[in-house]
């Protein structure tokens, strides 16, 4: 829902979003990401309103690593029967010094730990993952896991990868057993289950 509203020319009222959320829940959609309240104030009220009527699907919102964004999102999700905080952190460091990397790893860990104080279901997204150094991306994923993230998302934010190179990127983040079923793949690594459909824009590492 949040990404859909970013499409040029697409505008949705609160009533539009309520109707769409109810339709998605009727379709048994697992997670509905409503908005980014820390940046767009109208999203705060929309998340609250949708959280009050949706009981089965998980209501999710987006936040960056800033504490005020996380706290704003956590507040908006209070009425939700099932809530998720989706944190994103840019991982495409322009400089590759160990100090810069360590600082960013600390930001990832601290932001996830803060979010976990308010919501047990925390997703971490590696923004611009394909532009990151592979070794650093793997370290960032490990920090996110150890800090309590329950879902890891490695999105091709700018659509720069083809399926073959995307698979290679996944392989770098740890030896995992891959099982194929139809058009989908399931991967288990360190107790994590990864599900990926061909053509999807991002993979999610859902921890058991």
Topology record:
Elements: H1 2-5, H2 14-26, E1 31-35, H3 41-53, E2 58-63, H4 67-76, E3 83-90, H5 98-116, E4 122-127, H6 134-146, E5 151-153, H7 163-172, E6 177-181, E7 184-189, E8 192-197, E9 204-207
Parallel strand pairs: 1-2, 2-3, 3-4, 4-5
Antiparallel strand pairs: 5-9, 6-7, 7-8, 8-9
Helix pairs in contact: 2-3, 5-6
Any overview of this molecule?
The protein has 208 residues and is of the alpha/beta class. It has one domain: TIM Barrel (Alpha-Beta Barrel), CATH 3.20.20.70. It contains seven helices and nine strands, in the order ααβαβαβαβαβαββββ. Strand 2 (58-63), helix 4 (67-76) and strand 3 (83-90) form a beta-alpha-beta unit.
**Helix vs. strand class:** alpha/beta
Based on the coordinates given, report the CATH architecture.
Answer: Alpha-Beta Barrel
| CATH class category | Alpha Beta
Helix content: 25-40%
Gross morphology = globular
Please provide the ordered H/E string of secondary-structure elements: HHEHEHEHEHEHEEEE
- Radius of gyration, rounded? 17 Å
**pLDDT averaged over residues:** 80
Q: If you consult CATH, what is the topology?
A: TIM Barrel
Write down the domain tally.
Answer: 1
Oligomer: single chain
By DSSP (H or I, 4+ residues per run), the number of helices equals: 7
Count of beta strands: 9
Distance between the termini: 26 Å
Strand content: 15-25%
The CATH superfamily is known as Aldolase class I
Q: What's the main sheet like?
A: 9 strands, mixed
The side-by-side strand order for the widest beta sheet comes to 1-2-3-4-5-9-8-7-6
Low-confidence stretches: 174-208
